[in-house]
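[stage:ingest] chain + small molecule (adenosine monophosphate)
[stage:ingest] validated
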Amino acid sequence: MRVLLLGSGGREHALALGLADDEAVTRLVAAPGNPGIAEVAEVRPDVPVTDPAAVAALAVDVQADLVVVGPEAPLVAGVADAVRAKGIACFGPGAAAARLEGSKAFAKEVMGAAGVPTARSRTATDPDTAAEALDEFGPPYVVKDDGLAAGKGVVVTTDRDEALAHAATCAQVVIEEYLDGPEVSLFAICDGTTAVPLLPAQDHKRIGDGDTGPNTGGMGAYAPLPWAPPDLVAQVMDRIVHPTLAEMARRGAPYTGALYVGLALTARGPAVVEFNCRLGDPEAQVELALLQTPLTGLLHAAATGALASHPPLRWRPGAAVCVVVASSGYPVAVRTGDVITGAERPGVLHAGTARREDGSLVSAGGRVLACTATGADLDSARRAAYALVDGVGLVGSQHRTDIALAAVRGEVRIPQR
Ligand code: AMP
Ligand code: GLY
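[stage:predict] done
[stage:export] tokens:
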């Protein structure tokens, strides 16, 4: 099978490794790719991946049997629709279904119609309505830019002035009730009607240890979750994923691809914090480190409506941990162009890197590397991931030192009623 992969982050490097490892893949092309992906795929760095016509033309040109879309921007732009219009299978929702991530207001509307548990919310386009909504729900305030913001458009704060100031920077803002409880990322691989869950994972969204500082795209992740209730996946599939797929199909926008269900495990049960239309980054890195089932067959089955006859997923025993090494200044003022050393060891995935003409590897984004390791248990996976981090050289880099630590210590608690 010839596969075209879109994207350039750590998630896509993990996908590229999984696809390249799969004997079903005869040719792997990636656009734009990154220096890590270039080691296992032909890269096309100049293709504008949010341009549906350009991607469809590339898919035809490389005679792709399957296009795998990593990030949200091409999906929201309609790349999957353009690829499918050429008769080529595509893993990823069309534009109408990708609105589940592209518009938080739309996602709330779908959840309401499907009876999916989520925070109560209000949408505002002017400061007075925003202020009213803040006072209706009270602190901590949750203020979300309605459009795509790569995980950085959300401010959670007890400071009413800061909440109002963030609302003022957004054309349309969603203000919602605070959900109290540990966060979980659960991804469902969907083919429009059938859905297969991956392992529950946990990301760490804030920049600083102990969940302090601003939100980022994600600073580290681990899976599985030793503290999760045994029926968590079944509950999420029954109450959230299946009703959402049914509602999207009813609206004529069947959902194909990875549905990212961001949850808070509250005293009243799991509630949706957000939907994304793709795998999480860095959660995908830990999922793919543990998945033993060949990736191509799974993604192709999702893309062609054949998941019902796909064999059950097989997972490596043990656990995986990913620690993100970010550049100086991330997420506020990212510094790029610094030389990186120690990135050649297996498990050091490229997230924001570039290769200079002289061959040196330099930082080229906020999240630079995703150091990913497995182990017999969470503690040993964690040690192995941090050993990779310790071997990386990057001036001014930042990483959290507490990824998966609360879980290893048995300190993650779900609030009780
Ligand atoms: P989102 O982009 O919607 O995932 O929001 C980014 C982060 O903000 C989430 O991962 C949570 O940590 C936090 N967040 C978003 N919505 C809520 C909420 N209703 N209650 C508590 N925290 C939230
Ligand atoms: N890790 C969070 C995200 O991918 O949105």
